[in-house]
Design goal:
This protein has 309 residues and is an alpha/beta fold. The chain has an 8-stranded parallel beta sheet, with helices on both faces. Helix 1 crosses helix 10. It is globular, with a radius of gyration of 17 Å. The structure holds manganese (II) ion. The site of manganese (II) ion has 7 residues, from loops.
């Protein structure tokens, strides 16, 4: 038996989002399969959770699409996927299940956050911990690439195409004061401007060097826990250093170590406040023997409460 944090456990709703329309590099559409093959269901079940795997959201391949807008590549297709994901996440919450979304490129967060925001009780506040090398807060005008996986947080904060900001019916979905970044190290000029303008709390890799991961986690909770009722964790596997996790959509040197990531996840589990989770940007085509998906699954188990002792 493995010891766990919670005594009563919600059912976990696993939702695959096999989408790679939002990034410049192919292959993250295979992320949900890689995470399932790495045993996400069995490992969570072994912790005593009931699992409801709803399978994958329908996503059409880029080959069957036409790109209409260079500033918002595959906008109609990504909007359709996110609407469907939004409904699926909302249904899980309605069924008192804890949604765990398996990606897929990070544009899927538009759907995940749409579903969560649509189900918040009146007056309840959504808090988000965004663990990522990139802040994903570009607008169509600031984005150097037009790839929507670099825009989901801007959308959640109400900036961007109405086709995306309108998903789930709540706009904005997140208050910039209720968002914390951990692990940033690759930030575009426009993103830097918006983070400063909105006063978003960000712990870059420099803060992790300076405060160590323990200090960053402590400050994150001091800042965030009192101001949120629903805690959502969005984990981009590119937050990890590529020496540990090579199979990611957009690798950047100088990331979290395996132990730092586990420390963050363990600390989040101990708050008892996690209400939804997503794992983004697992790219099996760049991976070695599925090691990145295996690490992501072990981190998912940790944030859901698996402990060493
Ligand atoms: Mn990301």
């Amino acid at each position: 038996m493995t010891p766990e944090t919670a005594i009563t456990k919600p059912s976990i709703c696993l939702i695959g989002c096999p989408m790679d329309l939002g990034g410049g590099r192919r292959g993250v559409d295979m992320g949900p399969s890689a995470l399932r093959i790495a045993g996400i269901s069995a490992q969570i079940k072994a912790m005593g959770y009931a699992i409801h795997d709803v399978g994958d959201i329908l996503v059409h391949t880029p080959e069957s699409q036409t790109r209409h807008d260079a500033k918002l590549k595959y906008l109609p297709e990504i909007a359709a996927v996110c609407r469907s994901l939004c409904d699926t996440v909302a249904a899980a919450i309605d069924a008192a299940e804890l949604p765990v979304v398996l990606g897929g490129d990070h544009s899927m967060s538009i759907g995940t956050l749409g579903g969560i925001a649509s189900r918040l009780k009146p007056g309840a506040r959504l808090g988000v911990i965004w663990i990522d090398a990139h802040p994903d807060i570009n607008t169509p005008d600031s984005s150097p690439s037009g790839n929507i996986h670099g825009m989901p947080l801007a959308v959640a904060l109400g900036h961007g195409s109405p086709e995306l900001t309108g998903i789930g019916g709540t706009n904005p979905k997140v208050d910039p004061q209720n968002l914390v970044y951990i692990g940033l190290r690759s930030v575009d000029g426009g993103e830097r401007g918006l983070i400063g303008e909105l006063g978003i709390k960000a712990f870059t890799m420099v803060e992790i060097d300076r405060l160590r991961i323990t200090g960053v986690v402590e400050k994150t909770f001091e800042y965030l826990l009192d101001r949120c009722d629903h805690l959502h964790v969005s984990f981009d596997v590119d937050s990890l250093d590529p020496t540990f996790a090579p199979g990611v959509g957009t690798p950047v040197m100088g990331g979290l170590t395996y132990r730092e990531a586990h420390y963050v996840m363990d600390a989040i589990a101990r708050t008892g406040r996690l209400a939804s989770l997503e794992i983004a940007e697992v790219n099996p085509t760049l991976d070695h023997h599925n090691v990145t998906a295996e690490i992501a699954v072990s981190l998912a188990a940790t944030v859901l409460g698996r402990r060493v002792l």
